[in-house]
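Researcher: Go.
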Amino acid sequence: MLHKHQVWELARKTVAALTTSVMLLGPNANTALAPDKDDSSTKWPITHVVVIFQENVSFDHYFATYPHAANKPGETPFQAKLGTPTVNGLNTTGLHDHNPNQVNPFRFSPSQAATCDQNHDYGPEQAAMHGGLMDQFVQQLGNGPGTDGTLTCHSTDVMGYFDGNTVTALWNYAQHFAMSDNSFNTTFGPSSPGAINLISGNTSGATPANQPGDTVDGSLIGDPRPFHDDCSPNGGHQPNQIVMSGKNVGDLLNDKGITWGWFHGGFKPTSRDAKGNAICASSHIGANGKPKGDYIPHHEPFQYYPSTSNEHHLPPSSVAIIGKTDQANHQYDLSDFWNAFYSGHFPAVSFLKAPGYLDGHAAYSSPLFEQPFIVDTINKIMSSPEWKQTAIIIAWDDSDGWYDHVMPPILMQSNTVEDALNGPGSCGTAPAGSAQGRCGYGPRLPLQVISPYAKVNFVDHITTDQSSILRFIEDNWNLGRIGSGSFDALAGSLTHMFDFSGKHKAKRLFLDPNTGVVLGED
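Model: Structure:
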């Protein structure tokens, strides 16, 4: 049997050979490559940041009772280490059995992993919090009664949560690395605002605004599709498609010559039409038993920006140039990440997006569908030599509306027709002349840091948000700030989750991708 490092080396050599063939035979074989700057002048001993960006989970939905699992017969067991810190969850607050909502929170078993999607729109999420009373989740966000065609939906399902018998891998990562119990969606709303806040911290500057509910006063609050994307519905240029103005972290990385990329399952076209426009038709059967497209355009934030879009889904000109600027413009298929990784071209900053059925989104995915994707990805990265200087951040784009008991701090007020936190048209009182439609912070979300430099079995209570990930990347490579009102200027730091002294490095942790149980630690 091959040792882990031998498996990695064999895969690396195989892809390297393929890379050589591509470079010799491809149309851009003579392209001159600029020297990498990735390993120089980082603030911390982190030369690679990998962001695994999943879908639609509130903190309580996955960690409400952490570190205590029910451990019922026939389910994957979880036993916390002695000395494991508690989190701001439902057991520590008394809200598990005495809750102000219509029903108390309740546990979903592993057999109930496939759930209906909840309402998670900008205004209803605010209304559910009811000015801090946190008592309107069933009425405002519960999806039901009814079905989605295969799953039975009840409005009270919005109060459900999973424990370590279902999200076993994430609970084991929390035991061995660092997690936060005080990190928030930067603003209220669904997937697209969360993805945009991850890369720019700024959802204002959305045009055109001709689809009600997608934008308000020029700010993105819904899930319109990227205008510059062949694989948006009907090939683009529809009423629900927009362009974002301003800068994102890709622009900052390009300015410094740092390699980076967004790697998305299903981004590679399955065919092209007569005009050469990309068609992205790959799909898989999801948790609800229905086919789900692998590529979801409104989950790809860089496609909203003209400076970083790859409208026609062009491939990289060679494996060796993945992460650098060419016709792909840093937007890739997920397979391109592994080609680059195993051939010695691991980008400095990588955003990984699972194909739809593995991204954790309720209805078409589930905790048990996303677990193999997360674990397999981390196992592979841990097996490489680059692991020693890598930070993996697991984050989610929005809460899906799932109940979370913590009222977020409101750093950005807004008064539009879509706001509802303190009543119709009200999310506090916005200063005169400020950008509207950016009420936030939004719901509390999970956040985990996995790295040799992550604090072990540590729960961070520092207030952070999605743009804190952006800020960590900016600070590590001295990129500067986005400006123009980006939340990165307000974001709390992730550094409290790290120990950069080098004295207490975390061990590698290999998990079973299917069960999430520990296979080994070294």
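Model: Confidence is low (pLDDT under 50) at residues 1-39.
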